[in-house]
Specification:
Layout (H helix, E strand, L loop, with lengths): L1 H29 L2 H12 L6 H12 L4 H8 L11 H24 L4 H9 L18 H12 L2
Helix pairs in contact: 1-5, 1-7
């Protein structure tokens, strides 16, 4: 039971990090300043919807006669039984926690000094120096996220 919970917590954290870091980096460093708040609002907007409603939406997408399997059948591919299996749990948990990951990473990346990235790339070091950066203060999100998510799955 604990192993399964840790698997889902770690898997959700990795998926959220892989999907959330590019989004947060783009919003913090590349998006125009006048659009940043609107982009963050658009990413956080699903949190205003009830989690029960969002869960039922994923059920209608992933069930045997759902939208995803209808698209697979239309393309001539075999349908999958994703509902009530571990991929559906990872998809649902990742969807639930992705806005939190983006907000946390955005808060850290917004304060990132771009000169540190340029300095680390210029000397063929291949590493990023983070001693004087706020990201090092946010490294606890990994452990907090795994701890929090392992308590959310029973």
């Amino acid at each position: 039971m604990i192993g399964r919970s840790l698997f889902f917590a770690t898997g959700t954290t990795v998926i959220c990090l892989l999907l959330g870091f590019p989004v947060a980096y783009w919003i913090a460093q590349s998006a125009p300043k006048r659009w940043q708040n609107l982009l963050l609002l658009g990413f956080v907007l699903p949190l205003w919807t009830s989690s029960l409603l969002r869960s039922y939406a994923w059920i209608s997408i992933l069930r045997r006669t759902g939208v995803f399997n209808s698209l697979l059948a239309r393309c001539g591919l075999p349908t999958l039984n994703l509902l009530n299996d571990w991929p559906a749990v990872l998809i649902g948990m990742s969807y639930s926690f992705l806005p939190y990951m983006v907000l946390i990473l955005y808060a850290a990346l917004e304060k990132l000094d771009m000169r540190l990235l340029e300095a680390s790339a210029g000397g063929n070091s291949g590493t990023i120096i983070l001693e004087n950066n706020n990201i090092s203060g946010h490294c606890g999100w990994k452990f907090a996220s795994i701890y929090y998510q392992s308590g959310r799955f029973y």
